[in-house]
Write a structure and sequence with these properties.
With 189 residues, the chain is of the alpha+beta class. It has one helix and four strands; from the N terminus they run αββββ.
Length: 189
């Protein structure tokens, strides 16, 4: 892989990492917006509950007035029942709101964690591929040097013995002074 291609690859990986970072930030903002909307909805429920409470209080006041006219026991029982139902409803709404808030936080954290892990995995994989490409480029460079050296050297057989055309001052083949004998009998240390 040529150096410009490697630089293009690294630049592409950097752009991808930046894009993933933007997506993570957008997901976090979306989760915050959803949590805010959930909080607003819970506030609206609380306001409606307060309005309901006020209506129950008004109804209770009216009922008390009616009980004073002869139905005191029946009206008191209805008012207590309504107040108990309202208290249960308020407690249930509080539990529901707490559960929704916890789920929202959990979902937001999970999504953010997944995006961060995915980005880290992508960056790690990009680094690994870049390392492999650099190793390949290094091997290709060594091969190119050997090929370049072979273009400056002539290898042939001289009377059945291998010989190489090299620099001056080395032992030469008598039939052609351009070639040097290769000692194939000597063992390398």
């Amino acid at each position: 892989m040529e150096r410009t291609q490697m630089e293009d690859f690294v630049a592409s990986a950097a752009l991808l990492a930046a894009h993933l970072t933007q997506q993570c930030e957008q997901a976090a903002r979306d989760q915050r917006d959803a949590a805010d909307a959930l909080q607003d909805a819970a506030t609206g429920v609380a306001e409606h509950t307060a309005a309901g409470r006020d209506a129950v209080l008004r109804a209770t006041t009216t009922a008390v007035r009616e009980t004073l006219t002869g139905q005191l026991d029946a009206t008191t029982a209805r008012a207590e029942s309504a107040a108990q139902r309202l208290e249960h409803l308020i407690a249930h709404l509080d539990r529901t709101q707490a559960g929704l808030t916890a789920r929202s936080r959990l979902l937001g954290s999970g999504a953010l964690l997944a995006l961060v892990l995915g980005g880290a995995a992508l960056i790690g994989a990009s680094g690994y591929v870049a390392k492999l490409n650099l190793e390949r480029a290094e091997r290709a460079s060594v091969r190119a040097e050997v090929l370049e050296a072979l273009q400056q050297v002539a290898i042939t057989a001289c009377d059945g013995r291998p010989c190489i055309k090299l620099d001056d001052g080395l032992a030469r083949w008598p039939s052609n002074d351009d070639y040097v004998f290769v000692d194939t009998q000597q063992v390398a240390p």
